[in-house]
């Protein structure tokens, strides 16, 4: 009789361990790994409190990191940084968020290098002009084609500076 009770308890404990292990494996298989655009969109939906139903419009790879330009169903835009975790997976690191009609100017340090990141999702534009002021000296204006609405990335060794960004559409309208 005791052997039968022991076998019954062993069977119950074994079934419980198997169920817990299966639930654990199921949970981790559902966790987005950041290895695809769809999984990064899912990560954005949980990581960014303002904005919902994020859609990634543009991406850029910088030093192994992924910079995603995305917009939400409620008129928000973001530049999100995804850090590599190994095995082709990425985790959310940080983001700069704005309303969709605003230019996003942010930055990120990757592998000891600073990059200015600029993106505008508010209107179809032709080009952007970017002007730096370093130590009180206005630098030559940089001009970037924005026909494809790509993310602009500028490696910047300076520590203290200001930046002015203006986007222009085909009709000469300014966005700043």
Per-chain topology:
Blueprint: H1 2-30, H2 37-47, E1 55-62, E2 65-71, E3 76-86, E4 89-99, E5 104-110, E6 113-119, E7 127-134, E8 137-138, E9 142-145, E10 152-155, E11 162-168, E12 174-175
Antiparallel strand pairs: 1-2, 2-3, 3-4, 5-6, 6-10, 7-8, 7-9, 7-11, 11-12
Describe this structure in words.
This protein is of the alpha+beta class. The protein contains 2 helices and 12 strands. The chain has helices spanning 2-30, 37-47, and strands at residues 55-62, 65-71, 76-86, 89-99, 104-110, 113-119, 127-134, 137-138, 142-145, 152-155, 162-168, 174-175. Strands 7, 8, 9, 11 and 12 form a 5-stranded antiparallel beta sheet that branches. Strands 1-2-3-4 form a 4-stranded antiparallel beta sheet, covered by helices on one side. The chain is elongated and about 90 Å long.
């Amino acid at each position: 009789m005791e052997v039968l009770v022991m076998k019954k308890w062993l069977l119950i404990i074994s079934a419980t361990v198997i169920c817990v292990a299966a639930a654990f494996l199921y949970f981790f298989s559902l966790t987005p790994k950041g290895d695809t655009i769809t999984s990064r969109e899912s990560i954005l939906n949980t990581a960014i409190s303002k904005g919902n139903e994020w859609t990634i419009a543009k991406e850029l790879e910088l030093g192994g990191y992924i910079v995603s330009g995305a917009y939400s169903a409620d008129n928000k835009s973001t530049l999100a940084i995804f850090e590599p975790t190994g095995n082709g997976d990425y985790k959310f690191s940080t983001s700069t968020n704005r309303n969709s009609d605003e230019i996003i100017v942010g930055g990120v340090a990757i592998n000891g290098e600073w990059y200015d990141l600029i993106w505008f999702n508010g209107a179809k534009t032709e080009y952007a002009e970017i002007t730096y002021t370093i130590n009180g000296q206005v630098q030559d204006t940089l001009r970037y084609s924005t026909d494809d609405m790509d993310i602009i990335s500028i490696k910047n060794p300076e520590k203290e500076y200001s930046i002015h960004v203006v986007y222009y559409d085909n009709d000469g309208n300014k966005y700043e």
